[in-house]
Structure formats: C-alpha cells, structure tokens
Amino acid sequence: MGRFWSLLFLTVPILGVLTFVCAIGNIWPLNGGTLAFPADQWLPDDVSENGGVIDNLFMFILYLTGVIFIGTSIALFLFMWKFDAEKNAEPVKFTHGSHTLEIVWSILPAAALLFIAIYQMNAWVDAKMKRPTEMIGRSEVPKRPLVEVTGRQFEWRLRYAGADGQIGTPDDLHAVNDLHIPVNQEVVITLKSQDVLHSFFLPNLRVKQDAVPGMKQFVWFQANEVGAFDIVCAELCGWGHYKMRGRLTVESQEDFDKWFAEQMSEQERTEFTPSSGDDDE
C-alpha cells in the first residue's frame, strides 16, 4: 500500500493544477456546459483604469508560485516512490546535508521575493501612495473625496459631498449600500469603520482596502465602463458578514448629476404626499 499513498498524494497537485487551468481557459468542467460547473470562475471583468496592472502582477506571481509548486510536488512524489519502505531494502543513511545546497535554496527564494517587491513597486505607488490631484485656484492640491464610505455591521453608509465640495457639512447627501460614481473620472473615497475591521472590496475595479476603526483612509480609482457592480466586505466582521453587500453604479456625468439631484430632493422633503393609489379604502 506504500506506493498507493504516493500515487494518492500525486493526485492532489494534478487536480489543483487542472482546476486552475480549466478556470483560466474556461474549459470543461468549469465552462458552464453539460454536467459542468458555471462558467466565468476566474477573475471578474476589469472595468478600471489600473486593473490591468494588478491582474498582470497577480498572474506573474501565480505562474511563478505555480512552477515552484509543481516542481516541489514532483520531487516529493519521486522521493516517496523511490524510498517507500515496502519496496526499498537499503538501510537508512544519515547525512549532515550540503552547506552549498542550503545556501542556494536560501538565496533563490530571497532573490525571487526581492524581484517581486521591486516589480510591484509602481503598482503599489499608483494604488496606495499617488493620490490624484486637482487645481483649486492656482494651487495643485490632493483631490477632495467625492464620498465618505463608513463600514458598520452590516452595511456601507455613504456620505456624499454637497455643493460646497466638503464632507461633513449640512448639504451632504446620505445613502446606504448604493454607491454612484461618474465614468472616466478619477474618484477619491474616504474610508472609515464605525465598529470592527471591515474590508472595502470592489472586485471589478481591483480595489480592496481594510477599513480600520479609528483610522481615516483614502482610496482612489477610475472606472472606464458604465454598469452595476458589486461592493462586498472581504473581512469576516460578524454573524451578518455574508449579507454586507452593496451596489456600485458607474454612469455618465449627466446621469450621475441627475441621480444626485433626485436623491438630494428626496432627502430634503419635509412632508409625504401619498399618491392616489395609496389612499386607504
């Protein structure tokens, strides 16, 4: 049975690699066909300006670690197969190892990690450090946030800047789980948490940022396609984590201004006027 376990071990990396290949290539059984799982199991559609950089970095790391995973799995299988106790009559041999080999397999991973750190530097700067700017008068200043997003169990509370362009004033617009942004414009968001650790995740824009209690953080991105997309919490935040979802609507500037005006009018309504169909019978 010794070599049976070796073969059983080998099925794990084989099935793992095949799963990734089928998901990336949209191949059966992950293509939505007959007796298959639903299609599009890989990355969601990218509708952002800088999403391609994130995807390329992700795929590079995936391929690099995939090669290492396959090589390590093959080596482990060969050792398990060759030195199976039931088939190998040679006595155990002890060795102090190779000092040169230990240096080599310490340097190679360190070099790979250093290369990844340098390779991803521009992506990190663009996503986390290089905040968009705007001209106010004759001065170039960091772009003001369009909306403040506050995570709380289990919803996203939104506060849009009003006519004065400032968040935290009486003319702000309030909403819940319904984020609207104009297309083809750099948008800056202020991110906070009211209670526990949350993670603000826009899969289609390749944006993910932890919302930490007591901290105010800034997130920026640019959406290049109109449509409705998911907002999810990617951090386990309590019993209702599964339902902490919102909707991101990317629309033209005209549609955004129209939506904003309608929501502001609704917010400032001081009395309710029922329609004829709402009258009690």
Q: Would you give an account of this structure?
A:
The chain has 2 domains: 2-88 and 100-127, no CATH class; 138-267, Immunoglobulin-like (Sandwich), CATH 2.60.40.420. The chain has 5 helices and 12 strands. The chain has helices at 2-25, 51-82, 99-119, 121-129, 253-267, and strands spanning 133-136, 139-142, 147-152, 155-160, 173-176, 178-182, 186-193, 198-202, 207-211, 217-222, 227-233, 245-251. The strands form 3 sheets. It has a 5-stranded mixed sheet with strand order 5-4-3-7-10. A 5-stranded mixed sheet has the order 6-12-11-8-9. The chain has a two-stranded antiparallel ribbon with strand order 1-2. Strand 8 and strand 9 form a beta hairpin. It is elongated.
What key phrases describe this protein's structure?
281 residues; alpha+beta; Immunoglobulin-like; five-stranded mixed sheet; 5 helices
Gist?
The chain has 5 helices and 12 strands.
Helix and strand succession?
HHHHEEEEEEEEEEEEH
Give the helix/strand class.
alpha+beta
CATH architecture of the largest domain: Sandwich
What are the segments in which pLDDT stays under 50 over at least 5 consecutive residues? none
The number of helices is 5
Number of domains: 2
Distance between the termini: 80 Å
Biggest β-sheet: count, sense, barrel? 5 strands, mixed
The CATH class of the largest domain: Mainly Beta
How would you classify the quaternary structure?
Answer: single chain
Task: Say how many strands there are.
Answer: 12
In the CATH hierarchy, the third-tier topology of the largest domain is known as Immunoglobulin-like
Averaging pLDDT over every residue, what do you get?
90
Helix content: 25-40%
* Shape label: elongated
Strand content: 15-25%
CATH superfamily of the largest domain: Cupredoxins -  blue copper proteins
